[in-house]
Write a structure and sequence with these properties.
Largest sheet of chain C: none
Distance between the termini of chain B: 34 Å
Largest interface: B-C, 41 and 43 residues
Subunit structure (chain A): Homodimer. UreD, UreF and UreG form a complex that acts as a GTP-hydrolysis-dependent molecular chaperone, activating the urease apoprotein by helping to assemble the nickel containing metallocenter of UreC. The UreE protein probably delivers the nickel.
Protein name (chain A): Urease accessory protein UreG
InterPro entries (chain A): CobW/HypB/UreG_nucleotide-bd, P-loop_NTPase, UreG
Structural class of chain C: mainly alpha
Radius of gyration of chain C: 16 Å
Helix content of chain B: under 10%
Strand content of chain C: under 5%
Helix content of chain C: 55-70%
Structural class of chain B: mainly beta
Oligomer: heterotrimer
Radius of gyration of chain B: 17 Å
CATH class of chain C: Mainly Alpha
Function (chain A): Facilitates the functional incorporation of the urease nickel metallocenter. This process requires GTP hydrolysis, probably effectuated by UreG.
Number of domains of chain B: 1
Keywords (chain A): Chaperone, Cytoplasm, GTP-binding, Nickel insertion, Nucleotide-binding
CATH architecture of chain C: Orthogonal Bundle
Number of helices of chain C: 10
Chains: A alpha/beta (237), B mainly beta (254), C mainly alpha (223)
Number of strands of chain C: 0
Number of helices of chain B: 2
Shape of chain C: globular
Number of domains of chain C: 1
Order of helices and strands of chain B: EEEEEEEEEEEEEEHEEEEEHE
Chain lengths: 237, 254, 223
């Protein structure tokens, strides 16, 4: 049941035949849950989506999402991490895989599963076996030197979100410097600034996700097309 | 050295008039003395024990449609003697039949080496109430070695296999097993329609089984507290059909 | 084969074990375990009861898989019958599912494939036994790994929950090692006998803790 009968452990991370799994990581308090809620509201009318939360101690994040009614209850699953939130998204992803598979079974048409981590330090990274793409969320109040210090999450995430920009003047954070520093450690991968207070739709992040799904669908279409042509050739010969 | 008793007692209950069973067999043997009263068959215990060396068996057959209650007149006291003592109860409960087995507690006295076993086979629509209490030693006494094994199958499929082993003192007083409890017990309610919500409180767990049945287990400082917990656990169980579980008989028969 | 067995026993095996405390978290919540001696006492009791039962089931599963047997539903029923707590049955199946995923990606085995059809996911000991058989291991080795995991999982949870000194916890495990071997040997003795006779040692307090845990708001571990 739970096993991936046909799962090729060495396959490239492509969401063919299943939902795209998007990891959202970042330090505790950086706004992961609020971002997740905003993304659900922004995307739920155009995408079939679900959320897995990795709460540290309670089901508070899942409860928050349920309370906010961003999705129906059967689309939100909480995973417990045994006091090791990093382990659950990186070293031993089985509980998260189980949760994703159960959601996929319940909702076979899912386009997107957001896997929200339980709050990490800067070295945390989603396993490729769990997340097809990952977002790392920092907030400006956490210190404007964080991007310069780097860390696996900041450097390697597919998208870096610098959140709560409305607080920058209050805490004396230099947004321009944060952007420059992040650009240096990230080798050109995108960075967006976000303020859910000013733009509650998380427009920048939602647009990035749409782009990812569009590109994948395009790739997938070409792949299918290629496959079809091969078959035609085979039939003709 | 005295040789222990080897006793084979048996009861066969057929459906009778007015709810009481018609006993087509009632065989007492040695210390296993049986008496029929209007509400139950009683083990009246013709000798102290079981003592080391005793090998006792009680065979219960409840024929289709019959109802049998088994009680005992007094606590049984497992005592040391010549080797290990054994008490085995075998029960077969036929279609639509009901067995209610609820003897007084067993006390595992210091130095005892007792092995209790119960093997019950239920027909698919038979019902069962099986009540067991074990007191770990007489007053302020460390219990001896006591193991009890309880095997229940429904139409041949295992419903519950449950052992309590008081063999390794360190293991059984572990805070994962019995802790400092002075008494431990369980009630199994089995049959179609038996249900309960899982529940856990101090010393009490109500455990709906994978098959048709609910196991209530409890640990307590003493036998009286244990009995209160088990009664509370039993109240949390629902039985779709049939009367409420028979209450523990309060008085012994004359 | 030896290295494969080590992989199977390794706590770094990505099979979900890190999120299960084997009843330790509720015992800590109840105040029953606060220090290393109490943890050692907890582990000793767990080993002698659910550890023995799981090890015997794993040994039987290993022997069954090695014989090419297909009676997994019957072994599943024997496991259910020895696990009266619904919370523990669910935890065993959750860990079984996770282990099965890991095992099937690493080792080819018809027994593992057959276990994939178990409704709700297979029980953990059955998968451990079948995985051990897939690498040619003996029932005794399946029992050893299972008994070992019965204490190392909760021990690691104790370190995380209470901040216990990991060196002291490791010493406690070293003291228990002989008991782990003895339990595995006893368990393996049942591998080829009738399943009905497999040990069924119960731990009333573990059952109680398992149920209480599921009804607790604040918890870090699945079980």
């Amino acid at each position: 049941m739970g096993a991936n009968h046909d799962h090729d452990p060495y396959a490239a991370t492509r969401p063919h035949g299943r939902a795209l799994r998007l990891g959202i990581g970042g330090p505790v308090g950086s706004g992961k849950t609020a971002l997740t809620a905003a993304l659900c509201r922004a995307l739920r009318d155009e995408l079939d989506l679900a959320v897995v939360t990795n709460d540290i101690y309670t089901t508070e994040d899942a409860d928050f999402l349920r309370r906010e009614a961003v999705l129906s209850d059967d689309r939100i699953t909480a995973v417990r991490t045994g006091a090791c939130p990093h382990t659950a998204i990186r070293d031993d992803i089985s509980a998260n895989l189980d949760a994703c598979e159960a959601l996929q079974e319940r909702h076979p048409g899912l386009d997107l599963i957001i896997v929200e981590s339980g709050g990490d330090n800067l070295t945390a990274l989603f396993s490729q076996g769990l997340a097809d793409r990952q977002i790392f969320v920092l907030d400006v109040a956490g210190g404007d030197d964080v991007p310069r210090k780097g860390g696996l999450g900041v450097a390697a995430a597919d998208l870096l979100v610098i959140n709560k920009t409305d607080l920058a003047p209050l805490v004396g954070s230099d947004l321009a410097m944060m952007g420059r520093d992040a650009g240096k450690v990230r080798g050109g991968k995108p960075v967006v600034f976000s303020s859910l207070r000013e733009r509650p739709g998380a427009d920048e992040v939602a647009a990035w996700i749409r782009g990812v799904l569009h590109d994948l669908a395009h790739e997938h279409g070409e792949h299918e097309h290629e496959h079809g042509r091969e078959r035609e050739r085979a039939a003709a010969s | 050295m005295t040789r222990g008793y080897t006793a084979r007692a048996a009861v066969t209950a057929a459906p009778g008039a007015g709810g009481a069973p018609r006993l087509t067999r009632l065989r007492s043997d040695g210390p296993l003395a049986l008496r029929q009263t209007p509400d139950a068959v009683y083990l009246v215990g013709a000798a102290a024990g079981p003592l080391g060396g005793d090998d006792l068996e009680l065979d219960l057959v409840v024929e289709p449609g019959a109802r049998l209650a088994v009680r005992s007149a007094a606590t049984s006291l497992a005592l040391p003697g010549d080797g290990e003592s054994r008490m085995t109860v075998r029960a077969s409960v036929g279609a639509g039949a009901h067995l209610d087995f609820a003897p007084e507690p067993t006390v595992a006295a210091r130095g005892c080496r007792h092995r209790a076993a119960a093997e019950i086979d239920l027909a698919a629509d038979a019902t069962l109430r099986w009540f067991e209490e074990l007191v770990l030693g007489r007053h302020r006494e460390e219990p001896g070695r006591h193991t009890s094994r309880f095997d229940v199958t429904v139409a041949g499929v295992p419903l519950l296999r449950h052992e309590l082993r008081l063999t390794d003192r360190l293991a059984c007083t572990s805070r994962a097993v019995l802790g400092d409890a002075g008494a431990a017990g369980s009630v199994l309610l089995a049959g179609p329609g038996v249900a309960a919500e899982p529940h856990a409180a101090d010393g009490l767990a109500v455990l709906p089984l994978a098959g048709p049945g609910v196991l209530v287990t409890a640990v307590a400082a003493d036998s009286a507290a244990l009995r209160r917990l088990l009664a509370e656990g039993e109240r949390r169980c629902r039985q779709a059909a049939g009367p409420a579980p028979t209450r523990q008989a309060a008085v012994a028969p004359a | 084969m030896r290295a494969s067995l080590l992989l199977l026993a390794d706590s770094r095996l990505p099979a979900g074990g890190h999120a299960h405390s084997g009843g330790l978290e509720p015992a800590v919540a109840a105040g029953a375990v606060r220090d290393v001696p109490a943890l050692a006492d907890f582990l000793r009791g767990r080993l002698a009861t659910s550890g023995l039962v799981a090890a015997a089931l794993a040994a039987a599963a290993c022997a069954h898989a090695a014989r090419g047997g297909g009676a997994w539903a019957a072994l599943d029923a024997e496991t259910d019958a020895r696990t009266p707590s619904p919370a523990q049955r669910a935890a065993s199946r959750a860990q079984g599912r996770s282990l099965l995923r890991v095992a099937r990606t690493a080792w080819a085995s018809p027994a593992l494939d057959a276990l994939a059809g178990t409704p709700g996911g297979p029980h953990h000991p059955a998968v451990l036994g079948a995985a051990a058989a897939a690498m040619g291991a003996a029932p005794r080795e399946a029992a050893e790994i299972t008994a070992y995991m019965a204490v190392t999982g909760p021990a690691s949870a104790g370190i995380r929950l209470l901040g216990l000194d990991p060196l002291a916890v490791n010493r406690a495990l070293a003291v228990l090692a002989a008991d782990v071997d003895a339990v595995a040997a006893e368990a393996a003795g049942f591998a080829d006998g009738p399943w009905a006779e497999l040990p069924a040692a119960s731990a009333p307090l573990l059952d109680l803790y398992a149920e209480r845990h599921l009804r607790t708001d604040l918890r870090l571990f699945e079980s």
